[in-house]
Design brief:
Bound molecules: flavin mononucleotide
Shape: globular
Number of helices: 13
Number of strands: 21
Structural class: alpha/beta
Strand content: 15-25%
Distance between the termini: 29 Å
CATH superfamily of the largest domain: CoaB-like
């Protein structure tokens, strides 16, 4: 899959550096030519001998090779590579990348690289969650780097949380995806996912039970088929899907603004977010004190799908979701028309295992010619796969 491809692998000072050995082996097995750069602190975690043996190339660690004045040309390395993968990426190197710092060979190669850059962070959960780290990730993603999200699980510290480096197999999949055009290569996709929270006061909100799992799975699959995907997500606990640019929002208003910004260039839009239909007319500035009873005036939020449906060009494909509890098909068909969707995905809360909170879903898809396709109860990942297959068929019909 990677025959003839030149992969530059940067390894940072993280306990996950041991996984770099397997990563090099897998890349070489796929036919790639691999050159490895270690940061000076990575040398404390893994030996150049291991990586040089596996990559069949000398491992580079310093700007200057030896006392003769020979040097490792970082510009040449940056231009040589078809892809630059930094795995594991430490919090420290991430911060330096996000600030254009350049005090080691890996960072100089990053600044010089013209090829796609993929990063697989590895760090303890609190380091990963820290706002500084999250802002740094956003910065380098904005500049084009693809994030291979860290996974949830037991960390080297013994704590449990998100921060483990993605498995080498997953990193190789992300690299091969770069070179394999998919049926959606060249297409832009916008996916909305998750709930929205409508503030009542500084500490309380009106929300719903959406987890975002369905939309995240769809976003990941669209990216896997080659689309360049933007995920506008309400509050969720899910990691960013591999290869997807995420914009996190909280309220329906923020989701409307973010979606509107991305919609005009989207060839495919999937509205899977559970957007609040109403929000409090007033947001109290101070925490509302406890009383005997309380009432709120609610006002309508933007109907994002309907408003963007009016701006839709003929070559844009839009997919909506309908979660219904009664007269399901009839309501879904009405929604399909009123929001100008090409496809609507119906899930009924009357079907066991469907809808919010489950890892499964049972869907019926109606297209704008009112053709109805029913699917069995499946995992949300399988449902996403059925749906993305339908989208691809629809686009190519
Ligand atoms: C045992 C040990 C494990 C570490 N693991 C990580 C890690 O997984 N992720 C991380 O960001 N930093 C980790 N650090 C801290 C980094 O090694 C440190 O920030 C270093 O300066 C990173 O340098 P580099 O980014 O130039 O490779 C660890 C440190 C030690 C001593």
């Amino acid at each position: 899959m990677l025959a003839g491809k030149k992969i530059l692998l940067g390894v940072c000072g993280s306990i996950a550096a041991y996984k770099a050995a397997l990563l090099v082996r897998l890349l070489v097995k796929q036919g790639a030519e691999v050159r490895v750069i270690l940061t000076p602190s990575a040398l404390e975690f893994i030996t150049p001998l291991t990586l040089a043996t596996l990559s069949k190339n000398p491992v580079l660690t310093q700007f200057v090779k030896d006392e003769t004045g020979l040097w490792n040309n970082h510009v040449e390395l940056g231009l040589w590579a078809d892809a630059f993968v930094v795995a594991p990426l430490s919090a420290n190197t991430l911060a330096k990348m996000a600030n254009g710092q350049c005090d080691n060979l890996l960072l100089a190669a990053y600044l010089s690289a013209r090829c796609p850059v993929l990063v697989a962070p590895a760090m303890d959960l609190d380091m990963w969650q820290h706002e500084a780290t999250q802002q740094n990730v956003k910065k380098i993603e904005k500049w084009g780097a693809t994030l291979i999200s860290p996974e949830h699980g037991e960390l080297a510290s013994g704590l449990i949380g998100t921060g483990r480096m993605a498995e080498p197999e997953q990193i190789v999949t992300a690299v091969t995806r770069l070179f394999k055009p998919g049926p959606l290569t060249g297409k832009h996709a916008l996916v909305t996912a998750g709930p929205t929270y409508e503030a009542l006061d500084p500490v309380r909100f009106i929300g719903n039970h959406s987890t975002g799992k369905m939309g995240y799975a769809i976003a990941e699959l669209l990216a896997r088929h080659g689309a360049s995907v933007t995920l506008v997500s309400g509050p969720t606990h899910l990691p960013t899907p591999t290869g997807v640019a995420i914009e996190r929002v909280t309220s329906a208003e923020e989701m409307f603004l973010a979606s509107t910004r991305h919609f005009s260039k989207a060839d495919i839009t999937v509205f899977s977010a559970a957007v609040a239909d109403y929000k409090p007319a007033q947001v109290a500035r101070q925490k509302i004190k406890k009383g005997n009873s309380i009432s709120f005036e609610l006002v309508k939020t933007h109907d994002i799908a309907a408003e963007l449906g009016k701006q839709k060009r003929p070559n844009q494909l839009t997919v909506g979701f309908a979660l219904e509890t009664e007269n399901e098909l009839e309501h879904a068909q009405l929604k399909l028309k009123s929001k100008n969707f090409d496809l609507i995905v119906l899930n009924s809360l009357n079907d066991a295992g469907a809808g919010f909170g489950h890892d499964t879903n049972k869907i019926t898809v109606v297209d704008k010619n009112l053709k109805i396709q029913e699917f069995n109860l499946k995992s949300k990942k399988e449902v996403a796969s059925d749906l993305v297959t339908l989208i691809i068929e629809y686009l190519h019909a």
